[in-house]
Design goal:
The structure holds 2 protein chains of 2 kinds. Chain A is mainly alpha-helical. Helices cover 78% and strands 0% of the residues of chain A. In chain A, helix 5 packs antiparallel against helix 8. Chain A is globular and about 70 Å long. Chain B: One of its GO terms (cellular component) is membrane.
Chain lengths: 230, 362
């Protein structure tokens, strides 16, 4: 199977966007999941709803909201541009769209794993002299690792497949914002593009399979590490 | 040295306790729901009291009136849980060293090697908690708490999840921790055998209130006659080891009120030990018993009789010293015409005394 330079560009761009989107949202995902699992604060239900909104809204709507907020003439756009961050019609904007779309999936998996940790382990840790941050770093985080990994993979997979929000927010510019999904869409819109669409489809399937298998292996390893009983 | 004087109002349940401990083991004893684990949680910092203060070595851990609350990680109080709660992702060695790492540099008096040796866990160091048996897990749990060099150790029903032979393995270890490492211990349990064997001081809790505080002998003498559950009524007797009957495998225990034969060896003659006699194992007679299989007869006088439904809780002042709690039917008490002051022969089956729970008496 021979891939054209344009197709390679789309593949590398997709991977880069998905990886950056996952990495950048990881700390926020962990914090949000922990807050939802452990803290009670006013407006928690509303906050939970906001986090999950991209999961239930049409992606195009999410993309359009991003455009309103972060577009060149959007709410935060001019300010961000003044400090050198331009998101609209850039690959960074695609990463933002993918991060937002993958965030609810990521948080759900992580929240479950935080909720599954016996709090008495954390209490044992603090009785041994470890403050909150130490307990979080040494006990909570490692025990939640399987869920954090699963959440990250889910977020990554969602980012790879993101189409609607991305194309609405940053359009479909080859070499800048054209991901695999967008490239497949372009191929199907042009006469004689079926072969290219098929090639990229096969690439998508391979990437998805590799990610799934890798997550399975990592998760199994992580679960073994934190298992209480064997 | 800890001084506890706190109240906690949970709406449906009100806790109000005051006690102190010195050296050795202080047991919080009572039926489930009496507030003993809640009290432990207040000492450890798991929850906040609504009234009062807890002072450890002169430092206020919590003082509601002064607005002081020290978070658990600053209290330096070691906890041993029923289910040990070892960190599953760390090896036994790292579990043991966890608290030590956080202990203040000048306060690491307790030596790693000494603890490993005492607890007999040197072969487990490389393993993961998942690969330990229940007894091993509890040893490591005790070691982990001890190695954080705490000012106080709290045990929350540490033996409740173990079978009898594991219990008998762990109990001497707890005694050695008290004696060798000199860490004061507050020990929560609803098992009277453990308390009689281990405790220097017993705080009996009932419905969130302290009912009585004293040595096991004082507490499990007749002073707890208000325990209306006949199976919970027991007496701790202090006896001296007398001769042994090697041929029959028995030991003679001397009490001013009579002689008790106990199964098995009990150490050197002259050694004082504490035994536990359950009220339901005591038979009362008004005349010297004829030939029966019962070997043990203690003499005394009825001090009080307290009727509970069809039962009569009989409190006997033994000749010489101490009290013995007995329970009989009201019918039997009336037939024997027992009343305060009556002379009685208290018969105890030799086999009913658990020699494994006999403790050295201080």
């Amino acid at each position: 199977m021979h891939l054209s330079p344009e197709e390679w560009t789309a593949i590398w761009l997709s991977l880069r966007i998905a990886i950056v989107a996952t990495m950048a949202s990881l700390p926020f995902g962990v914090l949000t999941a922990y807050a939802l699992a452990r803290w009670n604060f006013p407006g928690k239900t509303l906050f939970n709803g906001l986090v999950h909104l991209p999961l239930v809204m049409p992606p195009v709507v999410t993309g359009f909201i991003l455009l309103i907020l972060f577009g060149r003439r959007g709410v935060f756009g001019p300010f961000l541009a003044s400090i050198g961050i331009v998101l609209s019609f850039r690959w960074t904007g695609a990463a933002l769209a993918c991060a937002v779309m993958g965030f609810p999936l990521m948080v759900r998996a992580m929240r479950l794993s935080f909720e599954g940790i016996d709090r008495r382990l954390e209490f044992a840790s603090s009785s041994l002299g470890a403050g909150r941050l130490w307990t979080f770093a040494l006990i909570t985080l490692p025990l939640a690792a399987p869920g954090i990994i699963v959440g990250s993979i889910l977020g990554f997979a969602r980012a790879l497949g993101e189409f609607g929000a991305t194309i609405t927010f940053v359009s479909n510019i080859p070499g800048e914002t054209q991901t695999i999904s967008a490239a497949i869409y372009s191929f199907t819109q042009a006469p004689g593009g079926d072969a290219g669409a098929l090639r990229l489809t096969i690439v998508s399937i391979v990437i998805a399979l590799v990610a799934l298998i890798a997550s399975e292996i990592i998760q199994r390893w992580a679960e073994k590490r934190v298992a209480s009983f064997e | 040295m800890i001084e506890v004087d706190v109240g906690l109002d949970l709406g449906t349940f009100k806790l109000d306790v005051a006690f102190g401990n010195g050296r050795g083991i202080t047991a919080l004893f009572g039926p489930s729901g009496c507030g003993k684990s809640l009290t432990l949680g207040l000492i450890a910092g798991l929850s906040r009291p609504t009234r009062g203060a807890i002072i450890l070595d002169g430092q206020a851990l919590v003082d509601v009136e002064k607005g002081v609350f020290l978070p658990p990680y600053k209290r330096r109080i070691g906890l041993v849980f029923q289910d040990s709660y070892l960190f599953p992702h760390l090896s036994v060695r790292h579990n043991l060293l966890y608290g030590r790492w956080f202990a203040p540099p000048g306060r690491k008096e307790i030596e790693f090697d000494a603890v490993i040796e005492t607890l007999g866990i040197d072969k487990l160091l490389g393993r993961r908690p998942a690969r330990l048996s229940g007894g091993e897990r509890q040893r490591v749990g005790i070691g982990r708490a001890l190695l954080s060099c705490p000012r106080l150790l709290l045990f929350d029903e540490p033996l409740a999840a173990l079978d009898m032979s594991r219990k008998l393995e762990i109990m001497p270890l707890i005694e050695r921790i008290r004696d060798d490492f000199k860490v004061p211990i507050v020990y929560v349990s609803h098992a009277i055998e453990e308390v009689v064997r281990l405790a220097d001081r017993v705080v009996v809790l009932q419905s969130g209130k302290v009912k009585v505080i004293g040595s096991p002998n004082e507490v499990f003498g007749a002073d707890v006659s208000a325990v209306d559950d006949r199976f919970e009524r027991s007496s701790a007797l202090t006896v001296t080891v007398g001769g042994a009957d090697a041929a029959y495998g028995l030991t003679e225990l001397v009490h001013p009120a009579g002689t008790i034969w106990m199964v098995g060896p009990a150490g050197a003659p002259g050694r004082p030990i504490r035994i536990l006699v359950k009220a339901t194992d005591v038979i009362l007679a008004t005349a010297p018993p004829p030939e029966t299989s019962i070997r043990n007869v203690l003499m005394g006088a009825v001090r009080s009789i307290h009727a509970v439904g069809p039962l009569a809780m009989v409190d006997i002042a033994l000749d010489g010293a101490e009290h013995l709690a007995a329970v009989a039917t009201r019918h039997a008490v009336d037939k024997l015409e027992l009343r305060p002051g009556s002379r009685v022969f208290a018969l105890i089956k030799a086999t009913a005394i658990d020699e494994r729970m006999a403790a050295a008496s201080s």
